[in-house]
Every structure is written in C-alpha cells, then in structure tokens.
Amino acid sequence: MPAGRWLSSYGAAKAGLLHLTSIMALELAPKQIRVNALAPGNIETDMHEHFESAGLAEHIRQRIPQRRFGQPRDLDGATLLLASDAGRYITGAVIPVDGGQLLSWM
C-alpha cells in the first residue's frame, strides 16, 4: 500500500500482515502448512459506506484501473485457489484482488 496521510495505523497493520505471512510461511512449511494472504482493494462492504457518505467514492473509483469497486464475491476465486489443493504448492504469497489498484500507484 502506498503511503498516505492519516493512515499510519492502517499502513503499519498491512505491513505487519505481509511480514507475518512470510515469516509464518517459512516457519510452517516443513510441517506442510501453507500460509498465504489476500490483499483486497476497495471492496463494497459496510465499512466502505464511509467513502460514499464523505463524497470520496468517485475520486477513489477513478484511481482503480477497472473503474469499479470490488464486490465481496470478487475474492472467491483467489480464496478458493489458496484454500484448495489447486494451490497446494503456494505458500508465502500475498495475492492482490484489487482491480489493478496497486498498479495505479506505480
């Protein structure tokens, strides 16, 4: 996640999750335990309503290459991959499910 003002606790939590995923994957791999994470972008949830009420939604939407907010069901494919035997050789991965939003910060 890119840096932004007033987001220090959010950024620290995200960074902690990324590092925790890597460290746990290394520690648990010998036991055949996989540790992965999803990095969802702006998903329309109850928490997301704050952006709408603050008048920020359209500005945020324009920064997403797919020009839309995600739906909770948009996480299904990556979740199924990581939770099933289809992803049995994947560990330590963080998969962005964000409509290309991370790319727009490059």
Description:
The structure is a single chain. With 106 residues, the protein is mainly alpha-helical. The protein has a single domain (8-105), classed as NAD(P)-binding Rossmann-like Domain (Rossmann fold), CATH 3.40.50. Helix content is 38%, strand content 8%. The chain has a two-stranded parallel sheet. The radius of gyration is 16 Å and the shape is globular.
Short overview:
The chain has 106 residues and is mostly helical.
Backbone shape: globular
* Biggest sheet overview: 2 strands, parallel
Spatial extent as radius of gyration: 16 Å
- Average per-residue pLDDT, rounded, comes to 91
What's the N-to-C terminus distance? Answer: 11 Å
- Name the poorly predicted regions: none
Number of helices: 4
CATH C-level class is Alpha Beta
CATH architecture: 3-Layer(aba) Sandwich
Q: Helices and strands: which structural class?
A: mainly alpha
